[in-house]
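I would like you to help me understand the sequence and structure tokens below and explain how sequence relates to structure.
___
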Amino acid sequence: MSYSFSLLIALLLTPLATLHAAETFLVENGQPRAEIVIAEKPLRTVRLAAQELQDYVEKISGAKLTIVTEPSGGGVAKIFVGRSSHTEKLNITASDLKHGAYRIVSGADWLVLIGEDTEFTPIEPWAKHNAEIVNGKAQAEWSKITGALWGVPNILIYKSRFTVPGDTGRPTALAGEKAAPLEMWDYDERGSFNAVIGFLHRLGARWYWPGELGEVIPAMQSITLPKIDETVQPDFPQRRFSYHGGVHGRDTSMWFMRLGVRDPYGIQDAHGMDTMTNREEVFAAHPEWLAMYGGNRRFDIKANNHLCYGNEELFQETVRFVRAQFDHYQMSMVSVMPPDGYTAICQCPLCQGKDSPERDQRGLASDYVWGFVNRVAKEVGKTHPDRKILNCAYGIYTLPPLKIDKLEPNVVVSIVGARVPRNNKPEQQEEYRQLRESWVAKTHHPVINFENYPFIDRGWYLPAFTPHAMGESTNATKGISHGEDISLTVPQEPSTAGIGFNHFQIYFTARMYWGGKDADVDAM
């Protein structure tokens, strides 16, 4: 008892700072105890990440951490954001962190938030704005390069470019200097930004929809330096939603980035054949490329103009078109998918009898369409064996072909409706599981899942709140899928459209991409 009493007296007389000597603070009682350290010449994605960390630590605690390129010393903890000479000295790199993966690791008085960071640079020629599409400049430059009449790939790429203020992520000492806006691209790799978001998630921050109203920010007077060494890998390399930073605004762009999405450059999704052919000049020169219906071949620039996949010249031109994109725009995966709204094959003599009327409606043209895609892939593979040909399993060619045992090694299948979360009955999800597995057996690569998330403000969709179907079907594709391509009916001002309900579908889906194969749907 005497010993215990003496120990109690000793503790009471010990200064509070001594009792907490083993604990290092990033923020203590609302006061900054750390600084954010970036490279002397940081990439724009790192600057964005540093700004995000500074902003949200201040929102959480009231303390504004300074951004520096050299640690100031003096007992201040260091938060290294992105690659720099300082992280190299610590032998912490992002060399094995791909597709947005990140690492959070700490030491006695430092914390590293790091991932792969790149700055996307578009390949010329590309339309800088809509006027260069309307006046024909982009088309003329592409035609000059190729010597062909094909339409321009990625014609709307400018919509994926947006700006943030020029002082974003600049060292605090330079904050007063005027700087040009910082140009960002949806195609940038943002691994270090993901690491910052991962750290903020650990503190309790959440972003349920764009803007401050969608934020949940914890209130913390003090933030301690965690003891951590964690590497976080996404479940899919491709985590694409059909938003565009240059169209839907900065708040929406930042929201999607906080959800950990990834839109890899070089992977086309749908209707590549429409891009190639849907021009008056193309069909004036090659009317026989058009599908024949009722004995006629008709072209309408405002319609979906379908093609004759039995035409040998169309086949040869498609091969050339694909190769040109690989060679010039360095695409990794080119779409050879028919135009939209395809309900019947060409009725010309070359195509007669090549449909499959005995099959389910979803397999009516499977052998016809996939036979063409497979031929293109085989020919292109002779010159570009490391590149891929993509087609969507869609409409009357949703089911796998029966006359092809295994698709060419360079064919990637994107299944439209591989999980359909709004159809949440067990027998419906079982049907989609069987569809996925039937395609996996036909291919050499993981499939891609293409989904449509209709927003209720579109006019004729009813709300469908199906989190278990969304989560469990996402988990079911992990390990067999390269990722997802979610098409959204997003209005021009998406931050308030069907607020809460519409955004939940996106939030929930995007966060499920990071949970692992057994991600807990109920916890989410």
Observations:
- The two ends are 50 Å apart (CA to CA).
- DSSP finds 16 helices and 21 strands in the chain.
- The longest helix spans residues 44-61.
